[in-house]
Design brief:
The protein is mostly helical and 56 residues long. The chain is 66% helix and 0% strand.
Amino acid sequence: MKFKIRNNKPKKVSKNFDSKDESNSLTSVYEELKFLREEIKLFKKEKKTLKKKLNF
C-alpha cells in the first residue's frame, strides 16, 4: 500500500540562521549516520549467524 504526502505547504525558514547552528546540525546528522551504519553492520552479522544456525 502506498501513501502520498498531502501536506505540500512550504516550511518557513528563519532568516536568522546561524552558521554555528548549521554546523551543529550537520555534526549531529553525521553522528547519527555513523551510528546507523554501525547498526546495519551489526544486523548483517546477526543475520549471517542466524542463517548459519538455521542451516546446521
